[in-house]
Amino acid sequence: MRDPLKAMLAAWALGVLSVGVSAASTAAAATPEQRSGAAQTPASAEVVKLADWIFASGDNKGLPFMIIDKTSAEVFVFGGDGLLRGVAPALLGFARGDDSAPGIGEKELSKITPEERTTPAGRFVAGFGASPSDKDILWVDYETAVSIHQVVNNNPKEQRLKRLESPSVEDNRITFGCINVPPDFYNKVVVPEFTGTSGVAYVLPETRPIEEVFLNFQYQERPLSGLAAASATGVDAGATAAADDVRGRPDAH
Question: Which of 25, 71, 77, 223 has its Cβ near the most Cβ atoms within 10 Å?
Answer without folding.
Answer: 77
